[in-house]
Amino acid sequence: MNYLFELTAKEKSRQKNTLNLIASENYPSPKVLQLLGEIWSNKYGEGYPSKRYYAGNQNTDLLESFVQQKALQVFDKTGSYGVNVQTLSGSPANQIVFLTILQPNDVVLSPQLASGGHLTHMHTVSSFSKFFQPHQYTAKQNEDGSFEIDFEALKEQIVKLKPKLLIVGFSAYPKKYEFAEICRFAHQYNVFVLADVAHINGLIAAGLHDSPFKEGDDGADFVSMTTHKTIRGPRGAILFAKNYIPDFAKVYLDILPLDAKGQPVTSLIEAVNRTLFPGGYGGPHFNKIAAIGQCLLEVLGEDQYPDEIDFVTYSQNILRTNKILEQSLQKGGLVPVSPTENHLCLMKLPENKDSLEIQKKLEEIGIITNRNTFPNDTKTAYRPGGMRFGTAALASRGLSDQQAEQIGRIITDLIFDRKSKDDLAKEVRDIEQSLNWWY
Question: Is the Cβ–Cβ distance between 119 and 113 less than 8 Å?
Fold first, then answer.
Protein backbone atom coordinates (compact mmCIF):
# COMPACT_ATOMS: atom_id res chain seq x y z
CA MET A 1 0.00 0.00 0.00
CA ASN A 2 1.52 3.36 -1.00
CA TYR A 3 1.61 6.41 1.24
CA LEU A 4 -1.50 8.04 -0.24
CA PHE A 5 -3.61 4.98 0.44
CA GLU A 6 -2.13 4.65 3.91
CA LEU A 7 -3.16 8.23 4.64
CA THR A 8 -6.62 7.57 3.26
CA ALA A 9 -7.03 4.55 5.53
CA LYS A 10 -5.88 6.61 8.52
CA GLU A 11 -8.33 9.38 7.70
CA LYS A 12 -11.16 6.89 7.32
CA SER A 13 -10.33 5.49 10.74
CA ARG A 14 -10.12 8.98 12.26
CA GLN A 15 -13.54 9.91 10.93
CA LYS A 16 -15.13 6.67 12.09
CA ASN A 17 -13.57 6.74 15.54
CA THR A 18 -14.35 10.35 16.49
CA LEU A 19 -17.47 12.39 17.19
CA ASN A 20 -17.73 15.16 14.60
CA LEU A 21 -19.47 18.29 15.92
CA ILE A 22 -18.28 20.66 13.19
CA ALA A 23 -21.42 22.34 11.87
CA SER A 24 -20.07 22.66 8.33
CA GLU A 25 -19.31 18.95 7.84
CA ASN A 26 -21.41 15.88 7.17
CA TYR A 27 -21.31 12.29 5.90
CA PRO A 28 -22.72 11.92 2.38
CA SER A 29 -24.18 8.60 1.32
CA PRO A 30 -21.93 5.94 -0.20
CA LYS A 31 -23.73 6.54 -3.51
CA VAL A 32 -22.65 10.19 -3.44
CA LEU A 33 -19.04 9.16 -2.90
CA GLN A 34 -19.29 6.47 -5.57
CA LEU A 35 -20.37 9.03 -8.17
CA LEU A 36 -17.71 11.44 -6.97
CA GLY A 37 -15.01 8.92 -7.78
CA GLU A 38 -16.62 7.32 -10.82
CA ILE A 39 -16.14 7.64 -14.56
CA TRP A 40 -17.48 11.20 -14.82
CA SER A 41 -14.16 12.71 -13.78
CA ASN A 42 -12.62 11.50 -17.05
CA LYS A 43 -14.61 13.90 -19.25
CA TYR A 44 -13.84 17.49 -20.16
CA GLY A 45 -16.70 19.73 -21.27
CA GLU A 46 -16.21 23.48 -21.43
CA GLY A 47 -19.49 25.25 -21.97
CA TYR A 48 -23.07 24.31 -21.12
CA PRO A 49 -25.50 21.57 -22.19
CA SER A 50 -25.93 21.45 -25.97
CA LYS A 51 -23.16 24.00 -26.44
CA ARG A 52 -19.80 22.41 -25.59
CA TYR A 53 -16.37 23.04 -27.03
CA TYR A 54 -15.43 19.34 -27.01
CA ALA A 55 -16.97 16.26 -28.58
CA GLY A 56 -18.27 13.31 -26.60
CA ASN A 57 -20.55 15.27 -24.26
CA GLN A 58 -23.88 13.61 -25.05
CA ASN A 59 -24.13 12.06 -21.59
CA THR A 60 -22.65 14.99 -19.67
CA ASP A 61 -25.26 17.24 -21.30
CA LEU A 62 -27.99 14.95 -19.98
CA LEU A 63 -26.30 14.77 -16.57
CA GLU A 64 -25.93 18.52 -16.09
CA SER A 65 -29.47 19.24 -17.29
CA PHE A 66 -30.86 16.56 -14.96
CA VAL A 67 -29.03 17.96 -11.91
CA GLN A 68 -30.16 21.49 -12.76
CA GLN A 69 -33.74 20.25 -12.92
CA LYS A 70 -33.47 18.52 -9.55
CA ALA A 71 -31.85 21.57 -7.90
CA LEU A 72 -34.73 23.75 -9.04
CA GLN A 73 -37.23 21.09 -7.95
CA VAL A 74 -35.77 21.04 -4.43
CA PHE A 75 -35.43 24.77 -3.88
CA ASP A 76 -37.44 26.96 -6.25
CA LYS A 77 -41.19 26.73 -5.82
CA THR A 78 -41.78 29.99 -7.71
CA GLY A 79 -40.37 29.29 -11.17
CA SER A 80 -38.42 32.56 -10.88
CA TYR A 81 -34.88 31.17 -10.81
CA GLY A 82 -32.33 29.48 -13.00
CA VAL A 83 -29.38 27.50 -11.71
CA ASN A 84 -25.70 26.90 -12.42
CA VAL A 85 -24.18 23.69 -11.03
CA GLN A 86 -20.63 24.28 -12.26
CA THR A 87 -19.35 26.37 -9.35
CA LEU A 88 -16.68 24.37 -7.54
CA SER A 89 -17.41 25.44 -3.96
CA GLY A 90 -19.14 28.10 -1.91
CA SER A 91 -16.41 30.74 -2.00
CA PRO A 92 -16.11 30.77 -5.81
CA ALA A 93 -19.92 30.83 -6.04
CA ASN A 94 -20.00 34.08 -4.07
CA GLN A 95 -17.13 35.45 -6.12
CA ILE A 96 -18.96 34.74 -9.37
CA VAL A 97 -21.76 36.99 -8.13
CA PHE A 98 -19.25 39.74 -7.33
CA LEU A 99 -17.75 39.51 -10.80
CA THR A 100 -21.17 39.43 -12.45
CA ILE A 101 -22.63 42.65 -11.05
CA LEU A 102 -19.87 44.69 -9.40
CA GLN A 103 -17.45 47.22 -10.80
CA PRO A 104 -14.29 48.49 -9.08
CA ASN A 105 -15.03 50.53 -5.94
CA ASP A 106 -18.67 49.46 -5.74
CA VAL A 107 -20.01 49.29 -2.19
CA VAL A 108 -20.86 45.90 -0.69
CA LEU A 109 -22.75 45.53 2.59
CA SER A 110 -22.29 42.19 4.34
CA PRO A 111 -22.46 40.58 7.79
CA GLN A 112 -19.52 41.09 10.13
CA LEU A 113 -17.48 37.95 10.76
CA ALA A 114 -18.03 38.17 14.52
CA SER A 115 -21.77 38.53 13.88
CA GLY A 116 -21.92 35.26 11.99
CA GLY A 117 -20.67 36.23 8.53
CA HIS A 118 -18.08 34.44 6.42
CA LEU A 119 -14.66 35.42 5.12
CA THR A 120 -16.02 35.46 1.57
CA HIS A 121 -18.62 38.03 2.57
CA MET A 122 -16.09 40.70 1.64
CA HIS A 123 -14.29 40.51 4.98
CA THR A 124 -11.31 42.87 5.13
CA VAL A 125 -8.88 39.95 4.67
CA SER A 126 -10.65 38.89 1.47
CA SER A 127 -8.71 39.56 -1.72
CA PHE A 128 -11.86 41.07 -3.20
CA SER A 129 -11.82 43.87 -0.63
CA LYS A 130 -8.96 45.33 -2.67
CA PHE A 131 -11.32 45.95 -5.59
CA PHE A 132 -14.58 46.90 -3.87
CA GLN A 133 -15.65 48.92 -0.85
CA PRO A 134 -16.72 46.52 1.92
CA HIS A 135 -18.99 47.65 4.74
CA GLN A 136 -20.42 45.40 7.41
CA TYR A 137 -23.53 45.15 9.50
CA THR A 138 -23.63 43.66 12.97
CA ALA A 139 -25.69 41.89 15.57
CA LYS A 140 -27.22 43.75 18.49
CA GLN A 141 -27.42 42.56 22.09
CA ASN A 142 -30.90 42.05 23.49
CA GLU A 143 -31.96 42.70 27.07
CA ASP A 144 -31.61 39.00 27.89
CA GLY A 145 -27.98 39.08 26.73
CA SER A 146 -28.58 37.20 23.46
CA PHE A 147 -27.59 38.56 20.05
CA GLU A 148 -29.42 38.90 16.77
CA ILE A 149 -28.90 40.83 13.56
CA ASP A 150 -30.20 44.40 13.89
CA PHE A 151 -32.26 44.59 10.71
CA GLU A 152 -33.51 48.10 11.44
CA ALA A 153 -29.93 49.34 11.69
CA LEU A 154 -29.17 47.41 8.50
CA LYS A 155 -31.92 49.30 6.69
CA GLU A 156 -30.38 52.58 7.83
CA GLN A 157 -27.03 51.47 6.44
CA ILE A 158 -28.64 50.63 3.10
CA VAL A 159 -30.09 54.13 2.87
CA LYS A 160 -26.84 55.78 3.93
CA LEU A 161 -24.26 53.70 2.05
CA LYS A 162 -26.25 52.95 -1.11
CA PRO A 163 -24.50 49.62 -1.72
CA LYS A 164 -24.64 47.82 -5.04
CA LEU A 165 -24.84 44.45 -3.27
CA LEU A 166 -26.23 43.25 0.05
CA ILE A 167 -25.23 39.83 1.35
CA VAL A 168 -27.64 38.04 3.70
CA GLY A 169 -26.55 34.70 5.14
CA PHE A 170 -24.30 33.44 7.88
CA SER A 171 -21.85 30.70 8.84
CA ALA A 172 -22.11 31.03 12.63
CA TYR A 173 -25.55 32.42 13.42
CA PRO A 174 -27.80 30.25 15.59
CA LYS A 175 -31.07 32.12 15.00
CA LYS A 176 -33.62 31.79 12.23
CA TYR A 177 -34.26 34.78 10.00
CA GLU A 178 -36.60 35.77 7.18
CA PHE A 179 -35.69 37.12 3.77
CA ALA A 180 -38.70 38.93 2.28
CA GLU A 181 -38.66 42.17 4.25
CA ILE A 182 -34.96 42.92 3.84
CA CYS A 183 -34.99 41.88 0.16
CA ARG A 184 -37.97 44.11 -0.54
CA PHE A 185 -36.35 47.05 1.27
CA ALA A 186 -33.02 46.62 -0.52
CA HIS A 187 -34.67 46.47 -3.91
CA GLN A 188 -36.36 49.82 -3.26
CA TYR A 189 -32.85 51.29 -3.26
CA ASN A 190 -31.63 49.42 -6.37
CA VAL A 191 -29.55 47.00 -4.30
CA PHE A 192 -28.88 43.44 -5.47
CA VAL A 193 -29.33 40.77 -2.78
CA LEU A 194 -27.16 37.66 -2.50
CA ALA A 195 -28.50 35.08 -0.05
CA ASP A 196 -25.70 32.77 1.06
CA VAL A 197 -27.53 29.78 2.52
CA ALA A 198 -24.56 27.40 2.62
CA HIS A 199 -25.36 26.35 6.18
CA ILE A 200 -29.15 26.24 6.17
CA ASN A 201 -29.97 24.94 2.69
CA GLY A 202 -30.89 21.52 4.06
CA LEU A 203 -33.28 23.13 6.53
CA ILE A 204 -34.77 25.21 3.71
CA ALA A 205 -35.19 22.11 1.55
CA ALA A 206 -36.95 20.37 4.46
CA GLY A 207 -39.29 23.34 5.04
CA LEU A 208 -37.78 24.04 8.46
CA HIS A 209 -36.37 27.50 7.68
CA ASP A 210 -37.57 30.45 5.64
CA SER A 211 -36.46 30.44 2.01
CA PRO A 212 -34.89 33.23 -0.07
CA PHE A 213 -36.56 31.78 -3.18
CA LYS A 214 -39.55 34.10 -3.46
CA GLU A 215 -41.40 35.89 -6.21
CA GLY A 216 -40.62 39.44 -7.23
CA ASP A 217 -38.91 41.86 -4.89
CA ASP A 218 -39.45 39.55 -1.90
CA GLY A 219 -36.84 37.11 -3.22
CA ALA A 220 -33.06 37.29 -3.31
CA ASP A 221 -31.56 37.98 -6.72
CA PHE A 222 -28.81 35.39 -6.24
CA VAL A 223 -28.71 32.38 -3.93
CA SER A 224 -25.43 30.58 -3.27
CA MET A 225 -25.03 27.37 -1.32
CA THR A 226 -22.56 24.63 -0.60
CA THR A 227 -23.63 21.01 -0.86
CA HIS A 228 -21.66 19.35 1.94
CA LYS A 229 -23.34 20.71 5.08
CA THR A 230 -27.01 20.20 6.00
CA ILE A 231 -27.93 18.99 2.51
CA ARG A 232 -25.47 16.11 2.96
CA GLY A 233 -23.80 15.95 -0.44
CA PRO A 234 -20.24 16.20 -1.78
CA ARG A 235 -17.98 19.19 -1.25
CA GLY A 236 -19.41 21.43 -3.93
CA ALA A 237 -21.78 24.32 -4.58
CA ILE A 238 -24.87 25.45 -6.47
CA LEU A 239 -25.57 29.01 -7.60
CA PHE A 240 -29.06 30.26 -8.41
CA ALA A 241 -30.10 33.55 -9.99
CA LYS A 242 -33.36 35.04 -11.21
CA ASN A 243 -34.38 34.00 -14.70
CA TYR A 244 -35.21 37.58 -15.63
CA ILE A 245 -33.83 41.08 -15.07
CA PRO A 246 -35.65 42.70 -12.12
CA ASP A 247 -37.02 46.17 -12.84
CA PHE A 248 -34.62 47.87 -10.42
CA ALA A 249 -31.64 46.15 -12.06
CA LYS A 250 -32.36 47.49 -15.53
CA VAL A 251 -30.33 50.59 -14.64
CA TYR A 252 -27.31 48.23 -14.45
CA LEU A 253 -27.75 46.54 -17.84
CA ASP A 254 -24.65 48.21 -19.21
CA ILE A 255 -22.40 46.54 -16.62
CA LEU A 256 -23.77 43.00 -17.01
CA PRO A 257 -21.94 40.56 -19.30
CA LEU A 258 -23.12 40.42 -22.91
CA ASP A 259 -24.51 37.19 -24.32
CA ALA A 260 -22.70 35.03 -26.86
CA LYS A 261 -23.98 37.24 -29.70
CA GLY A 262 -22.80 40.44 -28.05
CA GLN A 263 -26.30 41.44 -27.01
CA PRO A 264 -27.48 42.39 -23.48
CA VAL A 265 -28.45 39.40 -21.38
CA THR A 266 -32.11 38.96 -20.56
CA SER A 267 -31.75 37.32 -17.14
CA LEU A 268 -29.47 37.32 -14.11
CA ILE A 269 -28.81 33.60 -14.50
CA GLU A 270 -27.62 34.24 -18.07
CA ALA A 271 -25.27 36.90 -16.69
CA VAL A 272 -23.98 34.42 -14.09
CA ASN A 273 -23.45 31.76 -16.73
CA ARG A 274 -21.47 34.11 -18.94
CA THR A 275 -19.35 35.27 -16.00
CA LEU A 276 -18.55 31.71 -15.00
CA PHE A 277 -17.85 30.48 -18.51
CA PRO A 278 -16.13 31.78 -20.52
CA GLY A 279 -15.48 34.57 -18.05
CA GLY A 280 -13.66 32.65 -15.38
CA TYR A 281 -13.86 28.85 -15.36
CA GLY A 282 -12.81 26.07 -17.71
CA GLY A 283 -14.25 22.58 -17.74
CA PRO A 284 -16.90 21.54 -15.21
CA HIS A 285 -16.19 18.74 -12.71
CA PHE A 286 -18.87 16.33 -13.87
CA ASN A 287 -18.11 13.84 -11.09
CA LYS A 288 -19.04 16.49 -8.55
CA ILE A 289 -22.16 17.47 -10.51
CA ALA A 290 -23.26 13.83 -10.54
CA ALA A 291 -22.67 13.50 -6.80
CA ILE A 292 -24.69 16.66 -6.15
CA GLY A 293 -27.48 15.15 -8.19
CA GLN A 294 -27.49 12.07 -5.96
CA CYS A 295 -27.86 14.07 -2.76
CA LEU A 296 -30.74 16.01 -4.35
CA LEU A 297 -32.47 12.72 -5.19
CA GLU A 298 -32.13 11.75 -1.53
CA VAL A 299 -33.65 15.08 -0.45
CA LEU A 300 -36.58 14.51 -2.82
CA GLY A 301 -37.08 10.93 -1.64
CA GLU A 302 -36.36 9.53 -5.11
CA ASP A 303 -33.47 7.62 -3.52
CA GLN A 304 -32.54 6.97 0.10
CA TYR A 305 -29.71 7.51 2.53
CA PRO A 306 -28.56 4.15 4.00
CA ASP A 307 -30.60 4.59 7.19
CA GLU A 308 -33.78 4.93 5.06
CA ILE A 309 -34.88 7.94 7.11
CA ASP A 310 -36.59 10.57 4.97
CA PHE A 311 -34.85 13.92 4.64
CA VAL A 312 -37.40 15.95 6.61
CA THR A 313 -37.16 13.57 9.57
CA TYR A 314 -33.37 13.66 9.35
CA SER A 315 -33.44 17.47 9.41
CA GLN A 316 -35.79 17.45 12.40
CA ASN A 317 -33.34 15.13 14.14
CA ILE A 318 -30.58 17.69 13.58
CA LEU A 319 -32.62 20.49 15.15
CA ARG A 320 -33.70 18.42 18.13
CA THR A 321 -30.31 16.92 18.99
CA ASN A 322 -28.57 20.26 18.49
CA LYS A 323 -30.95 21.90 20.97
CA ILE A 324 -30.40 19.08 23.47
CA LEU A 325 -26.63 19.48 23.04
CA GLU A 326 -26.86 23.22 23.66
CA GLN A 327 -28.97 22.73 26.79
CA SER A 328 -26.48 20.18 28.10
CA LEU A 329 -23.55 22.53 27.43
CA GLN A 330 -25.38 25.33 29.19
CA LYS A 331 -26.18 23.09 32.15
CA GLY A 332 -22.49 22.23 32.32
CA GLY A 333 -21.40 25.86 32.57
CA LEU A 334 -21.18 27.37 29.07
CA VAL A 335 -23.28 30.31 27.90
CA PRO A 336 -25.09 30.33 24.54
CA VAL A 337 -24.50 33.45 22.46
CA SER A 338 -28.14 33.13 21.42
CA PRO A 339 -30.45 30.16 22.03
CA THR A 340 -30.21 28.00 18.94
CA GLU A 341 -33.03 27.87 16.41
CA ASN A 342 -31.18 25.92 13.73
CA HIS A 343 -28.48 23.29 13.20
CA LEU A 344 -25.68 24.92 15.19
CA CYS A 345 -25.09 26.33 18.63
CA LEU A 346 -22.56 29.00 19.48
CA MET A 347 -21.24 28.98 23.05
CA LYS A 348 -19.18 31.46 25.04
CA LEU A 349 -16.30 30.11 27.08
CA PRO A 350 -15.29 31.43 30.50
CA GLU A 351 -12.84 34.31 30.21
CA ASN A 352 -9.99 32.25 31.67
CA LYS A 353 -10.36 29.42 29.14
CA ASP A 354 -8.33 29.18 25.93
CA SER A 355 -10.48 28.00 23.00
CA LEU A 356 -7.52 26.66 21.05
CA GLU A 357 -6.35 24.53 23.96
CA ILE A 358 -9.87 23.28 24.59
CA GLN A 359 -10.26 22.36 20.92
CA LYS A 360 -7.00 20.38 21.10
CA LYS A 361 -7.99 18.61 24.32
CA LEU A 362 -11.38 17.68 22.90
CA GLU A 363 -9.70 16.23 19.84
CA GLU A 364 -7.42 14.18 22.09
CA ILE A 365 -10.46 12.44 23.60
CA GLY A 366 -12.13 12.04 20.20
CA ILE A 367 -14.46 15.05 19.85
CA ILE A 368 -13.91 17.23 16.78
CA THR A 369 -15.00 20.87 17.09
CA ASN A 370 -14.06 24.36 15.99
CA ARG A 371 -13.44 27.50 17.98
CA ASN A 372 -15.39 30.57 16.90
CA THR A 373 -15.73 34.28 17.56
CA PHE A 374 -19.02 35.95 18.48
CA PRO A 375 -20.40 39.53 18.76
CA ASN A 376 -18.37 41.74 21.11
CA ASP A 377 -15.75 39.03 21.56
CA THR A 378 -12.66 40.64 23.08
CA LYS A 379 -10.26 37.86 22.08
CA THR A 380 -8.38 37.27 18.83
CA ALA A 381 -9.79 35.51 15.76
CA TYR A 382 -7.19 32.75 16.19
CA ARG A 383 -7.97 32.27 19.87
CA PRO A 384 -11.55 33.51 20.09
CA GLY A 385 -13.76 33.38 23.14
CA GLY A 386 -16.30 30.91 21.80
CA MET A 387 -16.88 27.55 20.18
CA ARG A 388 -19.32 26.40 17.51
CA PHE A 389 -21.04 23.01 17.64
CA GLY A 390 -23.50 21.24 15.36
CA THR A 391 -25.09 17.80 15.09
CA ALA A 392 -25.74 17.41 11.33
CA ALA A 393 -22.89 14.90 10.89
CA LEU A 394 -23.71 12.84 13.96
CA ALA A 395 -27.42 12.86 13.09
CA SER A 396 -26.36 11.11 9.87
CA ARG A 397 -24.80 8.42 12.05
CA GLY A 398 -27.93 7.98 14.17
CA LEU A 399 -27.15 10.17 17.20
CA SER A 400 -29.78 9.73 19.93
CA ASP A 401 -31.16 12.41 22.23
CA GLN A 402 -29.48 10.76 25.22
CA GLN A 403 -26.15 10.71 23.42
CA ALA A 404 -26.47 14.39 22.49
CA GLU A 405 -27.01 15.20 26.16
CA GLN A 406 -24.09 12.99 27.17
CA ILE A 407 -21.73 14.64 24.68
CA GLY A 408 -22.57 18.06 26.09
CA ARG A 409 -21.72 16.79 29.57
CA ILE A 410 -18.46 15.23 28.37
CA ILE A 411 -17.40 18.53 26.78
CA THR A 412 -18.08 20.60 29.88
CA ASP A 413 -16.56 17.97 32.16
CA LEU A 414 -13.35 18.32 30.16
CA ILE A 415 -13.46 22.13 30.06
CA PHE A 416 -13.97 22.39 33.82
CA ASP A 417 -11.71 19.44 34.74
CA ARG A 418 -14.46 17.42 36.41
CA LYS A 419 -13.27 14.05 35.12
CA SER A 420 -10.05 12.57 33.87
CA LYS A 421 -9.34 12.63 30.15
CA ASP A 422 -9.05 8.83 30.13
CA ASP A 423 -12.54 8.39 31.58
CA LEU A 424 -14.01 10.91 29.17
CA ALA A 425 -12.22 9.31 26.21
CA LYS A 426 -13.78 5.96 27.15
CA GLU A 427 -17.26 7.55 27.14
CA VAL A 428 -16.54 8.99 23.69
CA ARG A 429 -15.41 5.59 22.41
CA ASP A 430 -18.55 3.94 23.71
CA ILE A 431 -20.75 6.47 21.91
CA GLU A 432 -18.76 6.32 18.70
CA GLN A 433 -18.81 2.53 18.58
CA SER A 434 -22.59 2.53 18.93
CA LEU A 435 -23.16 4.87 15.98
CA ASN A 436 -23.72 3.89 12.37
CA TRP A 437 -20.84 3.99 9.92
CA TRP A 438 -21.77 3.75 6.27
CA TYR A 439 -18.37 3.21 4.66
Answer: yes
CA distance 297 to 293: 6
CA atoms in the 13 A half-sphere facing the CB of 355: 25
Distance CA 136, CA 123 (A): 8
> b/e map of 228-257 (b: 16 or more CB within 10 Å)?
bbbbbbbbbbbbbbbbebbebbeebeeebb
* Tens digit of each residue's pLDDT (9 = 90 or more) over 249-302: 998 988 888 888 888 899 999 999 999 999 988 899 999 999 999 999 999 999
pTM value? 0.96
Q: Which CATH number fits domain 31-300: 3.40.640.10, 1.10.3720.10, 1.10.10.10, 1.50.10.100?
A: 3.40.640.10
Q: In the chain, what are the domain boundaries?
A: 12-28+306-434, 31-300
CA dihedral 176→15→326→426, nearest 10 degrees, is: 170
Sheet with 370-372: list strands edge to edge: 335-336, 344-348, 386-390, 370-372
Class of domain 12-28+306-434: alpha beta
Residue among 85, 170, 79, 59 nearest 121 (CA): 170
Cα within 13 Å of Cα(296), Cβ side: 24
115-157 pLDDT, tens digit per residue, is 878 877 877 777 888 899 999 999 998 888 888 999 999 999 9
Q: Considering only residues 422 and 112, tell me which one the structure prediction assigns the higher pLDDT.
A: 422
Q: How close are the terminal C-alpha atoms of the chain, in Å?
A: 19
Q: Which of 387, 392, 395, 331 is nearest to 356 (CA)?
A: 387
